[in-house]
Amino acid sequence: MSAVPRVALIGCGRIGQLHARNLAAMRDMCEFAAVADWNLEAAETAARLLDVPHATSASEDLLASPDVDAVIIASSTDTHARFIEIAARHGKDIFTEKPIALDIEATERALEAVADAGVRLQVGFQRRFDSGYIAAREGIEQGEIGNVEMIRDAMRDPSPPPPEYIRQSGGLYRDMAIHNFDSVRWLMGEDPVEIYTTASALVSEDIREAHDVDTSIVTMRFPSGAIASIENSRRSGFGYDVRTEIFGSTGALMVGEYRYTPIRRFSSAGVLEDHQYFFLERFRDAYRNEMVSFLTALINDTDVPVSGADGRAALVIAYAAEQSLREHRPIAIDMKEPDRARSEHHADSLPTS
Ligand SMILES: NC(=O)c1ccc[n+]([C@@H]2O[C@H](COP(=O)([O-])OP(=O)(O)OC[C@H]3O[C@@H](n4cnc5c(N)ncnc54)[C@H](O)[C@@H]3O)[C@@H](O)[C@H]2O)c1
Q1: pLDDT digits 0-9 by tens, 166-225
Q2: Pocket lining: 307 vs ligand 1, CB cutoff 6 Å
Q3: Which atom of ligand 1 is nearest the CA belonging to 15?
Q4: pTM score
Q5: I want to staple 121 with a disulfide (CB 3.0 to 4.6 A). Which of 62, 97, 230, 308 is the partner?
Q6: Cβ atoms 289, 25 nearer than 8 A
Q7: Closest C-alpha to ligand 1, atom 33
Q8: SS3 label, residue 339
Q9: CA 34/CA 87 separation, integer angstroms
Q10: For 341, which DSSP code?
Q11: With contact defined as beta carbons under 8 Å apart, do 27 and 14 qualify?
């Protein structure tokens, strides 16, 4: 490898453009060599704006290129597993956006390719790089709140993504709640053993037509007896809403910071503060930090901080959440040998009202 890794980015959509801007600002840690998107114009625009020497619509060429040491996969979810396998076969270290794949079999095939090639794979669970979540995890580890007994974790998007995104997203659990599944198991320090889901399709006709749900509560039980609830919605009238409350035997930790500007204005009309409207803003620093961690692991030849196994674990929990919704009952989770039955039609078993 050259002094710093030569990096290529695949996918120049919403999240790809953000990773591209971050990589372009890290020239001391990487050589940002190329961008790809099957929409060539998107790749060329990113390359022009960020001074990247090569843009292409042929992602596979970059994944196999001898001039690239590492790839960042930020294309649509249905491409991740295939791109991971190609990149691994060509000896590239890999950062992939979540989820690794929409099904467990494809996830395991990708992880096998990574293991066979002996390359690194980091999954884009950016909450783990947010200063609030890091402080919470450190507080838990240091016994600041005693034994964790309960976690309440909420994530609501301002409004649903476009219909074409919804259709190929894999549904609320594999696309959105997967962040919560990862962060709760990471904060708990153990995997859940039982899960129960209740959900509705209240937010948009497009979501209903895609047989998906948009409003959901999942409860999980852990081996220690601790309990977590996860609330998700594809709509939040006041903007992005991410809050995590961790209750222990001697205290509590609450993660959630929404203001752009650290000021509250008090008047006869009430109390006003501004609000970070979208996840790209709320987790701006976390997205940068996760990329720094990935590049640091490459430069120092160490392990990456979020593994492919973490990506698989969150997907296994998503499957169990869907099974509970389908079967209207609590589901025991076997992380090693999960029930692999899946359906894309999460909403079809909901009562019609
Ligand atoms: N970690 C996070 O918080 C977070 C947030 C948003 C999205 N994501 C994930 O990132 C991925 C992309 O999401 P997005 O919101 O940016 O979607 P998007 O639709 O805005 O962008 C996807 C891009 O990939 C390109 N693309 C699709 N197929 C391709 C192919 N075969 N080769 C090259 N390019 C291809 C599309 O042209 C598009 O530009 C998804 O997997 C999503 O789950 C993660």
Answers
A1: 988 899 999 999 999 999 999 999 999 999 999 999 999 999 999 999 999 999 999 999
A2: no
A3: 16
A4: 0.95
A5: 308
A6: no
A7: 37
A8: coil
A9: 14
A10: -
A11: no
